[in-house]
Amino acid sequence: MALVEIKNLSKVYRKGTQEVPVLRDLDLTVEAGEFVALMGPSGSGKTTLLNLIAGIDRPTDGIIRVAGVDLSQLSRTKLAAWRAQHVGYIFQLYNLIPVLTAFENVELPLLLLPLSRSERRKRVEVVLGAVGLLDRYDHYPRQLSGGQEQRVAIARAIVADPTIIVADEPTGDLDAETADATLALLRRLNEEMGKTLVMVTHDPHAAAAAKRLVRLEKGALVASELRAVGEERESVARAGA
Amino acid sequence: MLKFLPYVRKNILGHRVRSAMTVAGTAVLLFLFLFVTSVQNGLDRILDARDDKLIVFQAYRFCPSSSQLPVFYADTIQAVPGVKAVLPVKVVVNNCRASLDTVVFHGVDPKLLPAVRPNVRFLSGDWSAFQSRTDAALVGRRIAERRGLQPGQSFTIAGITVQVAGVFASDAIGEENVIYTHLTLIGNPGSHHDFHATLFEVQLDDPQHATDVAAAIDAKIREKYEVPTETKPQKAHYAGALADLLDLIGMTRWLGFVCVGVVVVLVANSVVMSAQDRVKEHAVLQTLGFSGPRVFSLMLAESCLISLAGGLLGTAACVGFLEWRPMSLSTEGVSIDFVASGTLVVAGLVLSLVVGFVAGAVPAWQAGRAEIVSSLR
Amino acid sequence: MRLLPWDYGVRNLGRRPVRTALTALGLGLVVFLLLVVVGFVRGMELSLQQSGDPEVVLLHNANSAENLENSSISDEVTALARTEFATHLVRYGETAAVSPELTIAGRISVGDRTEGTTAVFRGVDLDRVFLVRRQVSLVDGNLPGPGEVLIGRLVPAKLGVTASEVAVGQSITIEGKPWRVSGRFAAPGTLLEAEMWCRVDDLKTTMKRPNDVSVVAMRFDPAGDKAKQMGYVDYFCRNRRPDLELMGSRESDYYASLQKHYAPMRALAWLLVGLVSIAGACGAANTMYAAVAGRVREFAALQAVGFPRRAIALSLFQESVVLAAGATLAAAALALLLAQGVAIRFTMGAFSLQIDRTALLVGCAAGVGLGVFGAIPPAVRAFRMPIPDALKAT
User: Taking CA atoms, which of A17, A211, B205, B351 is between 20 and 30 Å from A131?
Assistant: First the structure.
């Protein structure tokens, strides 16, 4: 069974009396362990699709099932609890809590789980070590560079061992070198830890880190291409084929 | 919830200036509210006190200096059925009107006083020191502190010169504002060299029969003597004396409520600012899995903690101030102490929590209800 | 100096309407509180000031200098005063302005109420009292006859009853005896308005005091030498008739000494004013800090455009002061509507809250002042960061 199953998904935003369709009748599946990049021009609906997968927005129509759960059937409170268990979100601008240290930022999702203080501590140290920032555990976000902040954000996204990690332009605010390092980290999460990743990006270089490329245009899926590292690209399916 | 307290605390401390201003403003206003409430507490203590004494006063007189009853009335009063003991008291005040600095002398028979004042605890001196000199004075703790009176010290107030033979503490309402002297020192001998008292304090065999005994005393005096009396239970006597202060105390109470209103607005404003500054942060928390109700409770906890911090400070300041400077509002020789009781402390803390809750409820609810996607933008 | 447009500051108030509204509400409440407290202090001060006529001299018992209600002097003092002080007294035709008065504190009850209230009852010589008490005028009904009483305008507040319960024709009980209300008098701003007047002989009979009065009030010639007048009064009291145990006091001096008695209470009221102002300043500063913190980049951009820091700071002050001034005006209007003239019963008398020019000046100055001082620390903070750093601030 696919980890993410999307059927006939539509999303319409209302601005006053105007209706703005962002996603139209979209079908998509993501298998467990996949690393998918969502690409498309501005306004194509890629971030909206990401938000729907992450459970922070609701579809207007259609079904979206993640980890076997139909998200549209969950109440707000149950959706929050579901997110705590299953989703790790990485933002473009990191969105760390400014008054908390790196350690405390990473610990935040664990406060929602029934873990003891020592258990939380252990987990945070592991993931901070994995992103190479254990020595900066007591630094505040303002004391970290952009790349370091993003690594803390990644640590926060994985500390609760989520089922799926979603990333919205994770390298959008980083210089080339830091972006590469971040992408390498994401690849490690996927290849070594078997995490399922869905990443929105407009940067082809960032998209190259993913194994599958899904293109959206005007709210519809126009292409889905598998990409193997070091091998030529194979075109698998186009929308409607 | 406890595990989220570090996060709440950090958010409060992370905005030091805002939090400090809110705590300071809350502390000041709650200090004021508790200060005016302490007067009400003092008044309630007087009006709710055990009523087991009668006060015999000259009829148609109100200020102590205008009531002049011959001391020999005591024998007649003692003979009335139901009367256990009679203590003639000459009351001299330096100011009959409402004042924060009234000095009240009670001139009494020094041999009778120990029996009728078992509740008196000496902080210095003793009964024999008081009884041995005609110009000796026993000074209540509150007035001793207010005026800086020490044993052995001589002072003159309202034309009366006395020497401090001791300082006492007492649980009886208003007693710590009194200076006991000898009746013979201040009793104004009349034309037949009989001393005059302002009032007679009557202890009863059975307080249930107070009204009957009071009527009997007045009737007996009217029958035998020229100067009529009006006898009332002690509480009624105090209530009559304090009646003219009720408007003033009512007004201060009302002002106290307005102070609480300002605190609510101050804290609410602070919480609104906090919520508005952290719209994105709250959306991030929700993406991490914090539910709307949890975000609500985090904001509410912040509001309550700030308010409680201000409340603690204000309550401590009020209690500390009243301990350092015991204050009393007096009129016609009756004093209302500004009482910093345990109830006041609890009231201050509970009120600050309630204020935090009320002030923070709406902004916290709005923060918890915010849409994630639009908030992230 | 290039200044920012005036409406820039005003429009910024509308950026965060909830905050602005809450701050205005808080400031308004603070100013309202201040006005009521200052109104109380002014009411007390003014009633004592206005009650004391500097041309009126009181002869009273030497032992009751601070509590004239307890004074008792012989009846003969009235006749003596007319002759002894003839050269100093104001005369109206043949009548010298000398008024014997018996002042008692009596228990008064109205209607069916069994609980009485203590109030001042003054027995007066109706032919002479108005020659001395020039502030008093009859505003309703008639002068009292036997068994009748004339009540001051503040008496209903003093007794805690409605005006209709003590209207002309109604009956009130004084010391167990019913008295008919014959009329009402006004003595604006004085403590006399909380009193009840009757004929002095009526009161003497009721109170069984046939031979004494409380005071003899005299109106002295305003053109005369005041020191000389009081010098003679002192001489009369101490040297000519020491047996009468008299003392003379100018009424204004008597009330001035009462002012001193109430000084601790006034000091407490001003302390309250000070503390409430501090709380108000905290609220105003809080809002201005938040307003500034969120606009660091904006201010940096304005500076980059060419506006000097002073201009931006001025705009900040303007914003804060407009907010504070609006709240202050609303609070002042509310205070005048709700609190002005409210009677407060107070030791033997009553006075009205006076939100007069002084009170309004203090309240409005405090309100606007809160706006100014609330903006200073944030304004100082806003310009600490260098422009390039501020432009990058989040």
Answer: A211
**Same structural domain for residues B199 and B315?**
no
At A20 the pLDDT is 87
**Average pLDDT across chain A, whole number:** 87
CA distance A69 to C65: 92
Q: Could you tell me which of B297, B9, B306, B357 has the C-alpha nearest to residue A97?
A: B9
Pairing of strands A35-39, A212-217: parallel
Question: In this model, does residue A236 exceed pLDDT 80?
Answer: no
Delimit the domains of chain A by residue range. Answer: 32-56+75-238
> Which member of C268, C344, C348 has the closest CB to residue B251?
C344
- The answer to whether residues C4 and C314 touch, using CB atoms and an 8 Å cutoff, is yes
Nearest to C276 among B18, B24, B32 (CB): B32
**B299: nearest Cα among B319, B313, B279:** B279
B169 and B197, same domain (yes or no): yes
Q: How is residue B372 written in tokens?
A: 């994630």
What are the tens digits of pLDDT across the range A147-175? 999 999 999 999 999 999 999 999 888 88
A32-56+75-238 folds as Rossmann fold (3.40.50)
Asked whether the beta carbons of residue B100 and residue C265 sit closer than 8 angstroms, the reply is yes
- Neighbouring CB atoms inside 10 A of C57's CB total 28
Is residue B51 situated within a structural domain?
A: no
pLDDT band at C137 (very low <50, low <70, confident <90, very high): very high
Are the CB atoms for C58 and C248 separated by under 8 Å? yes
Q: How far apart are CA B245 and CA B239, in angstroms?
A: 10
Same-domain pairing of B42 and B74 = no
Among the partner-chain residues A99, A109, A112, the one whose CB lies closest to the CB of B11 is: A99
Identify the CA nearest to A145 among candidates A161, A132, A127, A159: A132
Domain chopping of chain C, boundaries:
6-50+262-391, 56-221
CA distance B77 to B85: 9
pLDDT of residue A238: 36
CA distance B110 to B87: 10
Domain boundary among B192, B227, B262: B227
- How far apart CA C305 and CA C4 sit, in angstroms, is 11
Q: Quick one: CA torsion of C292, C295, C299, C302, rounded to 10 degrees? A: -140
**Interface probe with B: pick from C23, C271, C346, C394, most Cβ of B within 10 Å:** C346
Looking at the DSSP bridge assignments, the partners of residue B182 are B108
Rounded to an integer, what distance in angstroms lies between the CA atom of residue A213 and that of residue A36? 6
Cβ distance of B289 and A57 shorter than 8 Å:
no
> Per the domain annotation, does B236 fall within a domain?
no
Looking at residue A241, what is its pLDDT? 37
| A109 interface with B at CB cutoff 8 Å | yes
Write out residues 203-222 of C within 8 Å (CB-CB) of B: 207
**Residue at C107: amino acid letter:** R
Pinpoint the alpha helices (H) of C196-295: 200-206, 226-235, 251-261, 263-293
pLDDT value at position A120?
93
Whether B193 and B251 map to the same domain: the answer is no
Residues of chain B with pLDDT under 70: 188-194
Residue B214 lies in a domain: yes
Q: Which of C16, C70, C102 to mutate to test the interface with B (most CBs of B within 10 A)?
A: C70
Does residue C289 contact residue B17 with C-beta atoms inside 8 Å?
Answer: yes
More confident residue, B241 or A11: A11
Number of domains in chain B: 2
By CB atoms closer than 10 A (0-12, 13-18, 19+), residue A17 is: exposed
Distance CA B163, CA B181 (A): 9
pLDDT at C306 over 50: yes
**What pLDDT, on a 0 to 100 scale, did the predictor assign at position A134?**
94
B55 located within any domain: no
